[in-house]
Structures are given as structure tokens and as C-alpha cells.
Design a protein that fits this description.
By secondary structure, the chain is an alpha/beta fold. Helices cover 30% and strands 16% of the residues. The protein has 17 helices and 22 strands. The two termini are 51 Å apart. The model has no long low-confidence stretch (mean pLDDT 94).
Length: 533
């Protein structure tokens, strides 16, 4: 390692990395190293090398340097653990971003500043160059399109907050003044959220259009601001839920993993579902192999009738029961479960809404992210085995289609077809070959499954034609109890019914064992708890 002085952020360091007067920057601590490597992987894959990464701890600094990533020391001396949203560490990271912008702008280069939980899908620099008069171009949390092409949002119609996870600064005097005022504001009170402070400042003076109308004078009446279109500089909602860029036939430049419900783990999983996360080779070759299945969804559950809370829960619950069986079989066979795609009729938010937000392009039904229903962060947590049984590993629904999946995994494949155990052809003794699936009786016992699949323990992917009535259940009551304790905690909430003090409804992994179960919000605070507590 070079001396610490070599990692100080200087004008010369930025000059060496900048191209055409532009530098692209992100920052983070060691907990986000895989996000940072994903960010770098996408940018360099687009042919961009004018990037720098700020390291908030020495562990990340060393790892990035050894991997050849251009890195500088932010001097933050921050802990290496994850910073949960809203935590003191989260707010410290926000303040560090503001300080960093103030440090970089005086160097005289255009600054494209990014959070680590976003990825670039297309080179944004030509797009940003289309607006040379803009002092600042910012992304937003806008979920209703204000334009249908790739022009800037109509700033008059933007109601969502400006999101500081992606924004482009030109080193103009108004931009520098804004950065300084922003710094003074967030340093004056460590409870101020940097994004709220930014929004407050740019709206101090706001509403006079710049000639041409696409930009607006803001902040001090001199700063020229533009809002990047959320259809192609996507949020977690416009990309993963609405698929706005697809519906408008546009090419997305970026996706930022906002609007999700499972913390850092949920962000990582969403990028994996979209096959955008840069995982290391061991992720694609689990030692015990993988188990996947084809979900069964009757047409009437998916497509018929009105999109109501009742029809949404009927659809999700039907899928959940199959996933519960698959989790049990994966646990029994010590395999990693490849989750199926998940269909929803209703969107999920943090507040009451009529099912989908009015004015958005959300289609019904839609393939919903896993964190809309499942507590991804809980499923990844190491729980005590004596109470919850063995950990059950899982992968995203797109896993087997990922180009990074090695050939030896793709080609080691066994198809299993369920059959009626009293049928004349339903016998595992028939064996299988590469052209014919293995036949397995429905409602097979634990011992039957162990006996049958022992012969295929070296097969990498076992794929079931269905999970409906595939497994009778664990023979040992203690094992069954541990499994139930575990998977009951895997489901989250749907949110929210309008005009209710308590509007959320808990999903229940064992809904089918409760004849009186209905998808209703808790009536009071005493009832407001998960079904397992």
C-alpha cells in the first residue's frame, strides 16, 4: 500500500481521472463494498473510467485499492457496518456527502454525484451535455410521468421530492453557494436529513422559468435547475414496479433502489432480480445445489374480477403456500431455493392508497419485487438453530437465467414431475434420462424424498413441475416446529388501507390453517403485531 498521503483528495487526483471536464463520484463504507464494485462494474462496462470512489473507512480503502479501483480517503474513520436508513450513521453519511461536494466543486470540474445503491445502465454524459445551461440536474421521487419522451421532467408538475442519490453539478457560482449553504444547514443540526435540507434550499426561490422552459430558477433566483426524467433516471418504483421506461419505449440510464422495504438486503435483492448486481462466482454455485419450481396460478386468481384487497391476498396467499412447501423441501434436501416470480394485484407503499397510485403507469397484476411480500432481510439473517432449525438459503427468481451462471450449473439439471401415486406410470423406479423427467408421487413423505434424491445429490439444479401438494411434511414434530418458527417470520405487510389509523395488513404464512382468516387491518394497537408474536 502507498502512504496515506497518496489517497488524499486533491485537484491533481481529480484532474488525472476526469474526462472532458467531468468526474463521476460515489462513496461508502466497507458494508457497501459489493454495491461499490457493482457501480464500478457497470460504469467501466459502459466505457467510462472518469470515476472516483470515496472510502469512509480504511478497510474499504485497502480493498478497493488492491482491486484496482480509483479510491481516495474521505478521512471519515467510519465504522464498517451497514448504516440503516434514518440511523445516526445514516445521517453522518449524508453530511459527509455534502462536505464532499463542497470539497470537489472548487476544483472546477462537473460533478456527477451518486449513491452506491444505484447502477448505471447507459452512459449519461451525452444526456447531461444536452443541458449546458443547467447549474444542477437532479433526480427525483416522482412516480407520475410529466413527459413521455426523454426530455427533462416538466418541473411545474413534479410533486415528488428531489432525490440526491443521483445529481449533476456544474462548478458555477450559484451551485457553489448552494453547496455551502447546504453544508452550513446540515452541520447546524445533526438531526436534519440532508435530502430535506436540499429540497428546502432549492425551493427558497422557485418558479421563474429559464428561457426555453425546461429549467427553472431556484434557490437564490439565479441557480438554473432541471429535473431528470424518472422514466429513465429511474427510482425503485418507476423501474421495478411500473416499468415506466418499458411502457414509454425508452432506454433507461440508471436505476436507484429507492421505494423498497427490506433495507440494504432488499436493495441488493432487487438488483439481483433485475440481473444487475455484480456477484462473485461462489454466489452462482451453492455446494448443496439448487431447487426450483414452476409456480401454478389459476387464471381466475391472476386476471379475473376487480383488483381489491381480497383478490390481491387470494393471489398472494395461493403463491405463498407453494413457496412454503418449496422452503420445506429445500430445507429437507439441504438445497438453495430459487424463488419463483411473485405476482401482485396491489402496490405497496408507506401510506394509504387505492391499490395503485393514481396517475402512475402501474399495471395490474404486475410482477412485484420480493420485498413487497417477504422480509428479505429476515430471511438472510442467521437465526439460532435450536429454535428455528437450519438456515434456508435462497436466490432471486431470475437466477437460472443470469448470464453469470456457470455452464456446469446450467447443464446439471433434473426435471421432476409430480404424479398421482396410484397411477400406473407414477414410479420413481422408472428412473430418468436426459429426455424424460423423474416422476414423483404427490404428498411424498420425508423419507421418500430423502431416498429418491440421494441418488441425485450431485445434480446442481432440481426443478419441480409444481409445488402443489408436493410434500406431506416433516416426520419429526420438533423439526416441523422449528421450520414453522422460521418461516412465519418471513412474511411482511401490505400497506395500506386508506383513511385508517392502522391501515396495514399482515401476511400470514399459515393463513390456510385459520378458517376465519381475513385480510383486515388490526382493529387497535393491541392487535397490531405479526401473526407469530
Amino acid at each position: 500500500m502507498p502512504s496515506p498521503r497518496a489517497f488524499r483528495l486533491t485537484r491533481d487526483m481529480v484532474r488525472a481521472r476526469a474526462r472532458d471536464g467531468v468526474i463521476v463520484v460515489t462513496f461508502g463504507n466497507y458494508a457497501f463494498m459489493d454495491f461499490i464494485l457493482t457501480w464500478v462494474h457497470h460504469l467501466t462496462g459502459l466505457g467510462l473510467d472518469n470515476l472516483l470512489v470515496g472510502a469512509m473507512d480504511t478497510k474499504l480503502l485497502r480493498e478497493l485499492y488492491l482491486r484496482g479501483v480509483p479510491v481516495f480517503d474521505m478521512g471519515s474513520r467510519m465504522a464498517t457496518e451497514d448504516a440503516g436508513w434514518g440511523s445516526p450513521t445514516f445521517h453522518k453519511m449524508g453530511r459527509e456527502k455534502v462536505l464532499l461536494i463542497n470539497e470537489l466543486l472548487p476544483f472546477g470540474y462537473e460533478l456527477l454525484m451518486c449513491d452506491t445503491d444505484m447502477v448505471w445502465l447507459k452512459n449519461p454524459l451525452p444526456y447531461l451535455a444536452r443541458y449546458p445551461d443547467a447549474h444542477l440536474l437532479t433526480s427525483s421521487d416522482q412516480v407520475i410521468p410529466t413527459v413521455t419522451d426523454d426530455s427533462l421532467e416538466n418541473w411545474r408538475q413534479v410533486s415528488g421530492a428531489y432525490n440526491i442519490g443521483i445529481f449533476h453539478w456544474r462548478p458555477t457560482e450559484p451551485a457553489k453557494r448552494l453547496a455551502k449553504d447546504w453544508k452550513d444547514l446540515v452541520l447546524s443540526d445533526d438531526k436534519i436529513w440532508d435530502q430535506n435540507a436540499f429540497n428546502d434550499l432549492v425551493h427558497k426561490v422557485f418558479g421563474q422559468p429559464v428561457q426555453g422552459e425546461e429549467l427553472v430558477y431556484s434557490y437564490d433566483g439565479k441557480l438554473k435547475l432541471g429535473v431528470l426524467p424518472a422514466s429513465i433516471f429511474c427510482s425503485g418504483h418507476t423501474y421495478f414496479v411500473q416499468g415506466m421506461y418499458q411502457q414509454l419505449r425508452l432506454e433507461p440510464y440508471a436505476v436507484h433502489t429507492t421505494f423498497q422495504y427490506a433495507g440494504t438486503e432488499g436493495k441488493r435483492h432487487r438488483l439481483r432480480e433485475a440481473m444487475l448486481f455484480f456477484d462473485q462466482p461462489p454466489y452462482y454455485d451453492s455446494p448443496g445445489g439448487f431447487l426450483s419450481f414452476k409456480p401454478n396460478i389459476p387464471k381466475q386468481l391472476l386476471l379475473d374480477g376487480a383488483h381489491t384487497i381480497e383478490s390481491h391476498f387470494q393471489l398472494v396467499n395461493y403463491q405463498m403456500k407453494q413457496i412454503r412447501t418449496a422452503l420445506a423441501m429445500a430445507s429437507l434436501l439441504k438445497r438453495t431455493l430459487v424463488m419463483p416470480p411473485l405476482w401482485c394485484r396491489l402496490d405497496r407503499m408507506w401510506f394509504g392508497h387505492p391499490g395503485v397510485m393514481e396517475g402512475t403507469l402501474t399495471r395490474q397484476p404486475f410482477l412485484c419485487p420480493m420485498d413487497h411480500v417477504f422480509e428479505v432481510h429476515v430471511m438472510l439473517k442467521e437465526l439460532p438453530e435450536e429454535e428455528f432449525g437450519a438456515h434456508i438459503d435462497f436466490r432471486e427468481y431470475s437466477f437460472l437465467e443470469n448470464p453469470s451462471l456457470p455452464k456446469q450449473v446450467k447443464e446439471s439439471f433434473l426435471e421432476v414431475q409430480l404424479c398421482d401415486e396410484h397411477g400406473t406410470r407414477c414410479s420413481t423406479a422408472n428412473g430418468t434420462n436426459e429426455h424424460r423427467p423423474l416422476l414423483l408421487p404427490r404428498n411424498s413423505t420425508e423419507q421418500k424424498l430423502l431416498n429418491v434424491f440421494y441418488s441425485y445429490k450431485n445434480v446442481k439444479v432440481i426443478h419441480f413441475s409444481s409445488m402443489v401438494d408436493a410434500f406431506r411434511g416433516f416426520a419429526d414434530a420438533a423439526v416441523e416446529s422449528q421450520f414453522r418458527n422460521r418461516v412465519k417470520r418471513y412474511t411482511g405487510i401490505w400497506c395500506c388501507v386508506e383513511l385508517r389509523e392502522i391501515g396495514h395488513i399482515y401476511y400470514d404464512m399459515y393463513w390456510d390453517e385459520k378458517p376465519s382468516w381475513k385480510p383486515h387491518p388490526p382493529l387497535n394497537r393491541e392487535e397490531d403485531h405479526p401473526p407469530w408474536s
